Amino acid sequence: MKATRSDFPILPQELIADILCRLPVKSLSRFKSVSHSWYSLISNPHFAQTHFTQTTNKKPDRLILISDSHTLFSVDYAADSPVATEIHFPSVEDESYDVWAEILGSCNGLVLALNESDVAMYLLNPSTRESKKIPESPFALNSVNACNRCGLGYDSMSDGFKIVMLSYYDGGVDEESGATTETNTIVSVYSLKSDSWRKIQGSSYLHCAGDPSGVYLNGCIHWQALRGSDYISVIVAFDLGNEVFWEFLPPPLVTNAVLPWFYPPVLGGFLCLPAYTDVWVMKEYGKKESWTKFSFCKREDISTRINLVCLLEDGEFLLSRDEE
């Protein structure tokens, strides 16, 4: 006798979500075509967050890079023979728009990237090849002398992803008009849930024109900055839940003159600070006394700048020289 739909029990939506969360990404991509409800469930950012938490360990095993041709590549460096795979996003408006200028941040498997064609930010999911165009912040400065720096993170309090934008004049003043901001930095927050920007209280920290994007760890986005009151270099953390800034000091032997030239990456779940041929690792988050120094070569052996790329499973650092 032929089975009909009514012969099978209807599973609760919570149980279906729990089962799907345990499946590999390739299977989920196929299952999105099962029904409208499954498509909505698997495409939901909350599902992506839950899936990431259940299927990955603390250290990521994939690297997203932009090539000289402004193409995104994915590298599975946990594989025996890592291979770079080109990534395209069919949901981007036009094939010619699938050209990327800069990676602005990453969090829990999602990537925030700047599109070179329309100079807009997109939130990308490299696993499912989905993308979402982020609207411009109405609070960002648009002067030629303005700097706008972003960071992507996950707010566990609201159970959603947020983008934080810092907008400021290099040096705090617009060289052409002489204009200044209410404080030194305008801060706006984008919520993926509401698909909208909000302006919050500004920041008194000073940022430089060449500062990189913020990095996410422990519910906070981090930047290197100068304290506005005494111009001491600090690492600034923006708490995504409470939407407030707090700070901690860099390693004790990293001077005020050295810190502005380096950025704080996150490797293997730890906040790090590269300084020439050394890597400082904050072993206990937020505790300045836990900074620990690792040296990977002698300073006289290196004549060019070294950047940290990632921390491999066996404890080795993957480095780049001269951005090559």
Outline the structure in words.
The structure is a single chain. By secondary structure, the protein is mainly β. The protein folds into three domains: 7-55, no CATH class; 144-248, Lipocalin (Beta Barrel), CATH 2.40.128; 251-324. It is 10% helix and 39% strand. It has four helices and 21 strands. It has helices spanning 13-20, 25-31, 36-43, 45-55; strands at residues 62-66, 72-76, 84-87, 100-107, 110-115, 120-125, 130-134, 146-155, 160-169, 185-191, 196-203, 215-217, 220-226, 233-239, 244-248, 266-267, 270-275, 278-282, 291-295, 306-311, 317-321. The strands form six sheets. Strands 4-5-6-7 form a four-stranded antiparallel beta sheet, with no helix packed on it. The protein has a four-stranded antiparallel beta sheet with strand order 8-9-10-11, with no helix packed on it. It has a four-stranded antiparallel beta sheet with strand order 12-13-14-15, with no helix packed on it. This is F-box/kelch-repeat protein.
What is the gist of this entry?
By secondary structure, the chain is mainly β. The protein has helices at 13-20, 25-31, 36-43, 45-55; strands at residues 62-66, 72-76, 84-87, 100-107, 110-115, 120-125, 130-134, 146-155, 160-169, 185-191, 196-203, 215-217, 220-226, 233-239, 244-248, 266-267, 270-275, 278-282, 291-295, 306-311, 317-321. It folds into three domains: 7-55, no CATH class; 144-248, Lipocalin, CATH 2.40.128; 251-324.
